[in-house]
Write a structure and sequence with these properties.
It contains ten helices and 13 strands. The protein is α/β, with parallel strands linked by helices and about 325 residues long. The protein has two domains: about 5-175, Peroxisomal Thiolase, Chain A, domain 1, CATH 3.40.47.10; about 180-325, Peroxisomal Thiolase, Chain A, domain 1. The chain is globular, with a radius of gyration of 19 Å. The two termini are about 25 Å apart.
Length: about 325
Protein backbone atom coordinates (compact mmCIF):
# COMPACT_ATOMS: atom_id res chain seq x y z
CA UNK A 1 0.00 0.00 0.00
CA UNK A 2 1.35 3.44 -0.98
CA UNK A 3 2.26 5.59 2.00
CA UNK A 4 0.41 8.91 2.17
CA UNK A 5 2.12 11.96 3.64
CA UNK A 6 0.80 15.47 4.17
CA UNK A 7 2.59 17.90 1.88
CA UNK A 8 2.61 21.67 2.13
CA UNK A 9 1.17 22.75 -1.22
CA UNK A 10 0.81 26.49 -0.59
CA UNK A 11 1.88 29.09 1.96
CA UNK A 12 0.75 32.66 2.58
CA UNK A 13 1.16 35.42 5.13
CA UNK A 14 -0.15 38.74 6.32
CA UNK A 15 1.42 41.49 8.43
CA UNK A 16 -0.16 44.82 9.42
CA UNK A 17 1.08 48.02 7.79
CA UNK A 18 1.91 49.93 10.98
CA UNK A 19 5.48 49.62 12.21
CA UNK A 20 6.80 50.05 15.75
CA UNK A 21 10.52 50.73 15.47
CA UNK A 22 13.21 50.66 18.12
CA UNK A 23 13.37 54.46 17.79
CA UNK A 24 9.69 54.58 18.71
CA UNK A 25 10.30 52.40 21.76
CA UNK A 26 13.13 54.68 22.90
CA UNK A 27 10.45 57.33 23.45
CA UNK A 28 8.23 54.94 25.41
CA UNK A 29 10.59 53.08 27.77
CA UNK A 30 14.17 53.33 29.02
CA UNK A 31 15.94 51.48 26.21
CA UNK A 32 18.02 52.08 23.08
CA UNK A 33 18.05 50.78 19.53
CA UNK A 34 21.55 49.37 20.05
CA UNK A 35 20.57 47.56 23.26
CA UNK A 36 17.54 45.93 21.59
CA UNK A 37 19.37 44.91 18.42
CA UNK A 38 22.43 43.44 20.12
CA UNK A 39 20.41 41.37 22.60
CA UNK A 40 17.45 40.28 20.48
CA UNK A 41 18.09 41.05 16.81
CA UNK A 42 14.85 43.06 16.51
CA UNK A 43 14.76 46.42 14.72
CA UNK A 44 11.03 46.85 14.22
CA UNK A 45 7.76 44.98 14.55
CA UNK A 46 4.30 45.24 12.96
CA UNK A 47 1.28 46.30 15.04
CA UNK A 48 -2.39 45.73 14.24
CA UNK A 49 -4.19 48.97 15.06
CA UNK A 50 -7.88 49.84 15.09
CA UNK A 51 -10.90 49.21 17.26
CA UNK A 52 -12.33 45.69 17.56
CA UNK A 53 -9.61 44.13 15.40
CA UNK A 54 -8.47 40.75 16.67
CA UNK A 55 -6.21 38.00 15.43
CA UNK A 56 -8.73 36.86 12.81
CA UNK A 57 -8.28 40.22 11.03
CA UNK A 58 -4.81 39.02 10.02
CA UNK A 59 -5.53 35.31 9.68
CA UNK A 60 -8.50 35.67 7.31
CA UNK A 61 -6.61 37.50 4.53
CA UNK A 62 -3.75 34.99 4.89
CA UNK A 63 -6.18 32.10 4.33
CA UNK A 64 -7.87 33.83 1.39
CA UNK A 65 -4.49 34.41 -0.24
CA UNK A 66 -3.59 30.78 0.40
CA UNK A 67 -6.68 29.65 -1.48
CA UNK A 68 -6.04 32.08 -4.33
CA UNK A 69 -2.48 30.85 -4.79
CA UNK A 70 -3.56 27.22 -4.80
CA UNK A 71 -6.57 27.92 -7.01
CA UNK A 72 -9.17 26.48 -4.66
CA UNK A 73 -12.42 27.75 -3.20
CA UNK A 74 -12.45 28.18 0.62
CA UNK A 75 -15.46 25.85 0.62
CA UNK A 76 -13.04 23.04 -0.35
CA UNK A 77 -11.20 23.29 2.99
CA UNK A 78 -12.01 20.27 5.16
CA UNK A 79 -10.38 21.41 8.40
CA UNK A 80 -8.80 24.62 9.71
CA UNK A 81 -6.58 24.72 12.79
CA UNK A 82 -5.74 28.14 14.21
CA UNK A 83 -2.64 28.15 16.41
CA UNK A 84 -2.78 31.21 18.68
CA UNK A 85 -2.48 32.51 22.24
CA UNK A 86 -4.38 35.70 21.41
CA UNK A 87 -7.83 34.52 20.30
CA UNK A 88 -10.38 37.12 19.28
CA UNK A 89 -12.59 35.92 22.14
CA UNK A 90 -12.40 33.29 24.86
CA UNK A 91 -15.04 31.51 22.79
CA UNK A 92 -15.97 30.77 20.09
CA UNK A 93 -12.68 29.60 18.64
CA UNK A 94 -10.89 32.09 16.44
CA UNK A 95 -10.70 29.30 13.86
CA UNK A 96 -14.50 29.37 13.67
CA UNK A 97 -14.44 33.12 13.12
CA UNK A 98 -11.80 32.79 10.38
CA UNK A 99 -13.87 30.16 8.55
CA UNK A 100 -16.91 32.41 8.66
CA UNK A 101 -14.94 35.38 7.31
CA UNK A 102 -13.39 33.47 4.39
CA UNK A 103 -16.34 31.27 3.45
CA UNK A 104 -14.88 27.94 4.56
CA UNK A 105 -18.41 26.67 5.07
CA UNK A 106 -17.54 22.97 4.94
CA UNK A 107 -14.59 23.02 7.33
CA UNK A 108 -14.60 21.97 10.93
CA UNK A 109 -12.23 24.16 12.89
CA UNK A 110 -10.66 24.68 16.27
CA UNK A 111 -7.92 26.58 18.08
CA UNK A 112 -4.67 25.06 19.28
CA UNK A 113 -2.73 26.77 22.07
CA UNK A 114 0.92 25.90 22.59
CA UNK A 115 2.42 29.40 22.75
CA UNK A 116 5.37 29.91 20.39
CA UNK A 117 5.41 26.19 19.52
CA UNK A 118 1.78 26.34 18.42
CA UNK A 119 2.41 26.18 14.69
CA UNK A 120 4.68 23.13 15.06
CA UNK A 121 2.06 21.37 17.17
CA UNK A 122 -0.54 22.21 14.52
CA UNK A 123 1.78 20.98 11.79
CA UNK A 124 1.88 17.63 13.53
CA UNK A 125 -1.84 17.47 14.29
CA UNK A 126 -3.03 18.54 10.83
CA UNK A 127 -1.17 15.85 8.87
CA UNK A 128 -2.83 13.06 10.86
CA UNK A 129 -6.15 13.93 9.20
CA UNK A 130 -4.54 13.83 5.77
CA UNK A 131 -2.51 10.66 6.36
CA UNK A 132 -5.57 8.78 7.59
CA UNK A 133 -7.45 9.63 4.41
CA UNK A 134 -10.17 11.39 6.39
CA UNK A 135 -9.51 14.82 4.82
CA UNK A 136 -7.78 16.10 1.70
CA UNK A 137 -7.33 19.80 2.43
CA UNK A 138 -6.26 20.95 5.89
CA UNK A 139 -5.21 24.51 6.66
CA UNK A 140 -2.89 25.28 9.57
CA UNK A 141 -2.78 28.95 10.58
CA UNK A 142 -0.29 30.54 12.94
CA UNK A 143 -1.53 33.95 14.06
CA UNK A 144 -1.09 36.25 17.03
CA UNK A 145 -1.85 39.83 17.97
CA UNK A 146 0.77 40.06 20.67
CA UNK A 147 0.34 43.82 20.98
CA UNK A 148 -2.95 43.05 22.75
CA UNK A 149 -1.18 41.36 25.67
CA UNK A 150 2.11 43.28 25.85
CA UNK A 151 2.71 45.91 28.52
CA UNK A 152 4.35 48.83 26.72
CA UNK A 153 5.71 50.15 30.00
CA UNK A 154 7.68 46.91 30.55
CA UNK A 155 10.93 47.26 28.65
CA UNK A 156 11.87 43.61 29.14
CA UNK A 157 8.95 42.33 27.05
CA UNK A 158 7.61 45.15 24.86
CA UNK A 159 10.77 45.15 22.74
CA UNK A 160 10.26 41.54 21.69
CA UNK A 161 6.81 41.06 20.25
CA UNK A 162 4.88 41.95 17.10
CA UNK A 163 1.70 40.99 15.25
CA UNK A 164 1.26 38.77 12.20
CA UNK A 165 -0.32 35.71 10.62
CA UNK A 166 0.59 33.03 8.09
CA UNK A 167 -0.94 29.78 6.87
CA UNK A 168 -0.10 26.57 5.03
CA UNK A 169 -2.28 24.17 3.08
CA UNK A 170 -1.74 20.44 3.62
CA UNK A 171 -2.74 17.91 0.96
CA UNK A 172 -2.08 14.19 0.37
CA UNK A 173 1.20 13.19 -1.27
CA UNK A 174 2.44 9.75 -2.33
CA UNK A 175 5.95 10.76 -3.51
CA UNK A 176 7.55 11.10 -0.09
CA UNK A 177 7.24 14.86 0.26
CA UNK A 178 5.70 16.74 3.16
CA UNK A 179 5.78 16.56 6.94
CA UNK A 180 8.00 13.55 7.66
CA UNK A 181 8.69 13.55 11.39
CA UNK A 182 8.37 15.60 14.57
CA UNK A 183 9.71 15.54 18.09
CA UNK A 184 7.50 17.62 20.36
CA UNK A 185 7.97 18.27 24.07
CA UNK A 186 6.25 20.04 26.95
CA UNK A 187 7.06 20.71 30.59
CA UNK A 188 4.45 22.42 32.76
CA UNK A 189 7.00 23.34 35.40
CA UNK A 190 8.14 26.07 33.04
CA UNK A 191 4.84 27.91 33.43
CA UNK A 192 6.25 29.90 36.33
CA UNK A 193 8.75 31.64 34.06
CA UNK A 194 6.53 32.62 31.12
CA UNK A 195 2.80 33.17 31.49
CA UNK A 196 -0.07 35.62 31.90
CA UNK A 197 -0.93 36.02 35.57
CA UNK A 198 -4.68 36.66 35.26
CA UNK A 199 -7.56 36.24 32.86
CA UNK A 200 -8.05 32.49 33.02
CA UNK A 201 -10.45 30.45 35.10
CA UNK A 202 -7.97 30.20 37.99
CA UNK A 203 -7.76 33.96 38.30
CA UNK A 204 -10.61 35.66 36.42
CA UNK A 205 -10.44 39.33 35.50
CA UNK A 206 -11.30 41.79 38.26
CA UNK A 207 -10.73 45.46 38.81
CA UNK A 208 -7.78 44.49 40.99
CA UNK A 209 -6.11 42.25 38.37
CA UNK A 210 -6.44 44.97 35.75
CA UNK A 211 -5.07 47.61 38.11
CA UNK A 212 -2.09 45.36 38.88
CA UNK A 213 -1.47 44.94 35.13
CA UNK A 214 -1.74 41.16 35.36
CA UNK A 215 -3.26 40.68 31.90
CA UNK A 216 0.03 41.08 30.07
CA UNK A 217 2.89 38.72 29.21
CA UNK A 218 5.08 37.96 32.23
CA UNK A 219 8.54 36.56 31.51
CA UNK A 220 11.68 35.79 33.47
CA UNK A 221 14.00 36.34 30.55
CA UNK A 222 17.20 34.68 31.73
CA UNK A 223 15.49 31.46 32.73
CA UNK A 224 13.48 31.28 29.50
CA UNK A 225 16.61 31.97 27.45
CA UNK A 226 18.49 29.17 29.21
CA UNK A 227 15.74 26.60 28.60
CA UNK A 228 15.12 27.78 25.02
CA UNK A 229 18.74 27.49 23.92
CA UNK A 230 19.02 23.94 25.21
CA UNK A 231 15.51 22.87 24.19
CA UNK A 232 15.54 24.01 20.56
CA UNK A 233 19.11 22.89 19.93
CA UNK A 234 18.76 19.46 21.55
CA UNK A 235 15.49 18.52 19.89
CA UNK A 236 16.72 19.63 16.46
CA UNK A 237 19.84 17.50 16.81
CA UNK A 238 17.76 14.52 17.97
CA UNK A 239 15.43 14.88 14.99
CA UNK A 240 18.32 14.74 12.52
CA UNK A 241 19.90 11.78 14.28
CA UNK A 242 16.62 9.85 14.28
CA UNK A 243 16.25 10.39 10.54
CA UNK A 244 19.91 9.61 9.76
CA UNK A 245 20.59 13.12 8.49
CA UNK A 246 23.28 15.71 9.14
CA UNK A 247 23.45 19.45 8.69
CA UNK A 248 24.82 18.87 5.20
CA UNK A 249 21.50 17.30 4.18
CA UNK A 250 19.42 20.26 5.39
CA UNK A 251 18.65 23.12 3.01
CA UNK A 252 17.17 25.43 5.63
CA UNK A 253 16.66 25.82 9.35
CA UNK A 254 13.30 27.52 9.96
CA UNK A 255 13.52 28.64 13.58
CA UNK A 256 11.01 30.37 15.80
CA UNK A 257 12.00 34.04 15.80
CA UNK A 258 12.30 34.71 19.52
CA UNK A 259 15.89 35.82 19.90
CA UNK A 260 18.78 35.76 17.43
CA UNK A 261 21.15 34.27 20.00
CA UNK A 262 18.81 31.29 20.48
CA UNK A 263 18.59 30.85 16.71
CA UNK A 264 22.37 30.98 16.34
CA UNK A 265 22.83 28.35 19.06
CA UNK A 266 20.37 26.00 17.34
CA UNK A 267 22.06 26.42 13.95
CA UNK A 268 25.49 25.76 15.48
CA UNK A 269 24.27 22.61 17.21
CA UNK A 270 23.12 21.00 13.93
CA UNK A 271 26.02 22.33 11.88
CA UNK A 272 24.27 24.90 9.69
CA UNK A 273 25.98 28.11 8.51
CA UNK A 274 24.11 31.45 8.79
CA UNK A 275 23.26 31.46 5.10
CA UNK A 276 21.06 28.37 5.60
CA UNK A 277 19.00 29.92 8.42
CA UNK A 278 15.74 31.79 7.77
CA UNK A 279 15.80 35.01 9.74
CA UNK A 280 13.25 37.84 9.75
CA UNK A 281 13.19 38.73 13.43
CA UNK A 282 14.74 42.10 12.63
CA UNK A 283 11.57 43.37 10.92
CA UNK A 284 8.75 41.42 12.59
CA UNK A 285 9.99 40.57 16.09
CA UNK A 286 8.44 37.61 17.87
CA UNK A 287 4.97 37.00 16.41
CA UNK A 288 4.60 33.83 18.53
CA UNK A 289 2.65 31.22 16.51
CA UNK A 290 3.20 33.11 13.25
CA UNK A 291 7.00 33.27 13.11
CA UNK A 292 7.73 29.95 11.38
CA UNK A 293 5.03 30.14 8.68
CA UNK A 294 5.96 33.80 8.04
CA UNK A 295 9.49 32.60 7.30
CA UNK A 296 8.17 29.97 4.88
CA UNK A 297 6.07 32.66 3.20
CA UNK A 298 9.01 35.02 2.75
CA UNK A 299 11.44 32.33 1.60
CA UNK A 300 8.93 30.47 -0.62
CA UNK A 301 10.56 31.56 -3.90
CA UNK A 302 13.95 30.27 -2.69
CA UNK A 303 12.69 26.82 -1.73
CA UNK A 304 13.21 23.95 -4.13
CA UNK A 305 11.26 20.74 -4.48
CA UNK A 306 12.97 18.09 -2.37
CA UNK A 307 14.62 20.52 0.07
CA UNK A 308 14.84 19.23 3.62
CA UNK A 309 13.76 21.81 6.20
CA UNK A 310 14.06 21.66 9.98
CA UNK A 311 11.42 23.73 11.75
CA UNK A 312 12.21 24.40 15.42
CA UNK A 313 10.46 26.31 18.19
CA UNK A 314 10.35 26.97 21.92
CA UNK A 315 7.49 28.58 23.81
CA UNK A 316 5.76 29.21 27.10
CA UNK A 317 4.43 26.23 28.95
CA UNK A 318 7.20 25.18 28.38
CA UNK A 319 6.61 23.76 24.91
CA UNK A 320 9.24 22.99 22.30
CA UNK A 321 9.93 20.82 19.32
CA UNK A 322 11.35 20.26 15.86
CA UNK A 323 9.73 19.07 12.64
CA UNK A 324 11.30 17.66 9.49
CA UNK A 325 9.69 18.72 6.20
CA UNK A 326 10.56 17.71 2.63
CA UNK A 327 9.41 20.56 0.42
CA UNK A 328 6.88 19.46 -2.19
CA UNK A 329 7.01 22.16 -4.89
Amino acid sequence: MTKVTAAITAVSGFVPEDRLTNADLEKMVDTTDEWIRTRTGVSERRILKGDNKGTSEMAAPAVLELCRKRGIDPAEIDCLICCTVTPDLVFPATANIICNKVGAVNAFSYDLMAACSGFLFGLTTGPTYVESGRFRKVVVVGADKMSAIVDYSDRTTCILFGDGAAAVLLEPNTEGYGVLDSILKSDGSGAAYLHMKAGGSAKPATIETVTRREHFVYQEGQMVFKFAVKGMADVSASLLERNHLTGNDIAWLVPHQANKRIIDATANRIGLPPEKVMLNIEKYGNTTSATIPLCLWEWETRLKKGDYLVLAAFGGGFTWGATLVKWAY
